[in-house]
Amino acid sequence: HFENLLSRADCTKNWTEKIYRQTEVVLQPNPGARIEEFLFEKLDRKVPPRPTNGDILGQFMLEAAKEFGPGTPYGSTLIKVGDCQRRLGGAEREFLQTSSISFLTPLRNFLEGDWRTISKERRLLENRRLDLDACKARLKKAKTAEAKAALWNEELDKAEHELRVAQTEFDRQAEVTRLLLEGISNTHVNHLHCLCEFVEVQAMYYSQCHKYMQELQKELGRKSPHSLEVNSHPAGSPTDPSAFPQLNSPSPLKTDTLQIEEVQPPASGTRKAKVLYDYDAADSNELSLRADELITVYTVPGMDSDWLIGERGNQKGTVPVTYLELLS
């Protein structure tokens, strides 16, 4: 039982040490910053406040917005995103502080407090065991010499007394060490509580980040791309919002200038194509596809190269090229 307690204690110490070190890396990936914090701690000085990456990025965006003009579309968007990045940085800073207090500190207290006490008592127990072995050897030697001379009687009594004293001290130290080692179970319970708190803090941090990003998305989505003064910039310029592809927007065919029902097939240039995968039309301008069917396809001037006009009987609509195998 005692050897099992020793083994369990060593295992707890080793894994606690590894978890503690790796948690430090997760909370502060920069090794230079970790060394700086360690030195400040050893010098018993307060660690100076350090801005997070989100704080720095947000500050850069806000300063850029001042240079570009807060009234411009790019400048106003920079202000919104920069403010969100600063809030994310604040949430990260709060997460780091809370995790350090609720999770790292208890692990470090165990390694620097309880474990040092256990190690000290184990060393004392080892010394008591060595003393006990020496007394046993001396008693054995005295008993062997007892038959040779009566003068050894006094030495025998003395050796027996020393053995009783050493045995008593060893038993007492073994009991003290056993009680400390059995306390490892309480340490596991305490570390489990701290681990749950760490998970809650981490979940709260990511929830805050998700909330901030949702708020930013809603705020950016309030302003229609058509209201960003697109007429003041040439089409396709970097500041033209229409130049940026929107999510779930398959092609520039979905504009008012191209009506599918008005598109006529060219006199030549139509081809047959085999459909490779099923495709569900996103709107009335597209044509739904079923795998392995044959359709007629062609293109018209101004179309995106990733899309074609597809016909199946009286049905007509745009289809993605990647879903087709063009036949000769």
UniProtKB/TrEMBL annotation:
It is found in: Cytoplasm. This is Endophilin-B2. Residues 1-229 form the BAR domain. Pfam families: BAR, SH3_9. The lineage of its organism: Eukaryota, Metazoa, Chordata, Craniata, Vertebrata. Residues 223-253 are annotated as: Disordered. One of its GO terms (biological process) is membrane organization. Residues 142-176 form a coiled coil. Homodimer, and heterodimer with SH3GLB1.
